[in-house]
Model the fold of this input.
Amino acid sequence: MMDMWQNIILTIATAATPLLIAALGELVVERSGVLNLGVEGMMIMGAVTGFAVALATGNPWLGMIGAIIIGSLFSLLFGFLVLSIATNQVATGLSLTLLGIGLSGMIGEEFVGEPGVKLSNIEIPGLVDIPLVGRLLFGQDPIFYISIALVFGVMWFLFKTRTGLTLRSVGDNHDSAHALGIPVLRYRYFAVMFGGACAGLAGAHLTLVYTPQWIENMTSGRGWIALALVVFASWRPLRLLAGAYLFGAVSIGQLHAQALGLGIPSQFLSSLPYLATIVVLVIISTNRRLTLMNTPACLGKPFVPAR
Done:
């Protein structure tokens, strides 16, 4: 029984990690006042790039680095369009997702069916044998530990540093920030790049840890769930951590339900994570005061500095 619960906890953590990383990146982006709906596209490009680089070099760490770079490059494309040219953020983000899905399918066509290179777990002798939590805390893959470090790193950056305070002020009132001499576009460019790097890393987790192989459209809407998680967490990193693991539990729960043969249609069980996303967004929307209080005031609004 103990082993069963440990395996369930481990699979929940594995399922939650890419959601958490992608959502953390988007949280920073939205805190700066930019709405990037291209998370799914950047994730899928990170997934195929991470797999391809790891397969070509035999080194999953290089695959992880390649995924981060491609995610950042995709975000720079988005940043150039919405920040430098001031295109519509919603339309540009959707276009980025469509571009990523199409391009990843073309790049990954030759990798379908190829065995991948798995990123090995970091195991601390002795501690990994602690019942129930030993393998979760002391025997996980490196990206899991990076995700937890990112939660506290982002929280410290946003609420304990001068730069983080400035970033939040840019998201709340870009005109006032500009009047005070703050380089609004520079802050937003760095935030967008950070979001792209996180999305790329989240994608790499799918092909280097979660399922070490390439399957077309293997992100399966995780980028959209990450976007919903940011709203669910009210733009707070610790709430995001809880939300990611809640959605990870829903994703894994439907797999266990199918394995138990409960007589529920598998199509319905597979839709549970996305159904949960809709339900959560509906519940959040009923608390209008809380939503408005935490939402960056300039989220999605273009900024064109006066010349």
